[in-house]
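Q: My collaborator sent me two sequences in one message, no labels, and asked for predicted structures for both. Can we handle them in order? The first one she listed is below.
A: Yes, handling them in the order given. First sequence, followed by its structure tokens:
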Amino acid sequence: MDKAIVTTDLKSNQVAMVVPTRYRKLVFILAILLIAGVILSVYRGIRLKVLESEIRTTIAQIKDAYGIDIHYRYDAKSFFPQEYLYLPVSAQGSQVSLKHVKSILPIIETFLSKYPREVIWKNLSDIYLLGKLEFYGRSYGGTYINSAIYIQSQGTNDSLVGIMHAEFSSILFHNYEFPKEKWEAANESGWKYTGTGFEILGRKDSYDLSEELFSKGFLVKYSQSSLENDFNMFVQWAFLEPPILQNLASKYERINKKYQLMIQFYKSIDPRINIPSM
């Protein structure tokens, strides 16, 4: 077993400690690890600064093109209206990673490219990106407030762009004259929507499909919650899965009626909106 050896310098009458070789090696390794840690920390700091610079450049370009402010530095007081911060709404969010922000920005650009710039300028002012998004104690993939949409960053590219189209469709639903009576007439006589959608949030069967639903004019179970959510689902499918929606419209009369009403509504806002139609 190595032991430290104490020696005495007879001339200076000082005691010196001789460190065994194995301990000198250990000290050397620890020093190397410490230096490597410092270098890695500095590198990460530089990389984050470069990443944020790239993000800000892209956000500025989107702002110039569409007049939209994209927010990614989470702060509850600036993200949500004040009344949303308290019970019963209790809005909550979290910081989204810069890596996610960078990956979402091209998705936002894909979403925006489907609309004439004038439509975006007039109806959409802000996009908020969050790591998590909760209202009333439940998780939301996305929502809208006034002229802003909120996006939880988790999910595939398709699911994220689908949420953007769906939430923006709600803004358009309220900003323009939507044919509610004609839409409701496409449902079975006496049909009543079940609520607002909140009542089935988180249920595993919310997005189940079935022949029975299709024959009644609904794409998924969630569509039955409200007219607005029903419309949202048609918009999401129209942009993401046009062949599937068109195929269903060719087979089911009620789906076809809603599909045509959706297209007519979008074209009445601006004929240049790039929504696939039959």
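Q: And the one she listed second?
A: Here it is, processed independently of the first:
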Amino acid sequence: MIGVIDYGVGNNASVHRMIQRVGGSSISVTNPDMLSSVDKVILPGVGHFDAGMSELVRHGFHDGVLEQLTHRQRPLLGICLGMQLLCHSSEEGSRPGLGLVNAHVVKFRFEAGSTLKVPHMGWNTIGAVRDNPLLPISHDEQRFYFVHSYKVVPGDPQLTIAHADYGGEFCAAFQKKNVFGVQFHPEKSHRFGMDLMRRFVELT
């Protein structure tokens, strides 16, 4: 059973549908007590960093709660803003993040005259850079749907499991033991998103 944290800041219905499409089962987790009844957890999210952290804390999902979850070796996947909330901090706000991953979040910046726009929105290819359970290292194209103005910068490059390019390489996905984050939206990424979600569902 996968628990999808519902703190009012996310595209939860689409995440549930994707889990069901790949043969998984899910429930909405609205308070920390429900975490004891799930095997894996997804933290979705869209919007502003500080607003997301405020709602997480208001619903009781502070850093200690999710840290205890990861100590019990239950896989945790952050999606888009959810990935960023797993980090220490963000230039988008002043609140501290959950700090489960040694990383910070910075805004996309481009040289004068660049035609690239912020947010980075639409389909982009990613490339896995090391072995991991979610994204295979492959010469075949893997395409995912992105919508974000800020990018994750890991303190240790070895945390990155996949890159994408938008005015330069950036971290599209990371892994720290059983904690995963993806900057893109697998629930909007058709067969590529289904493949990733299926692998997450099948994690043991």
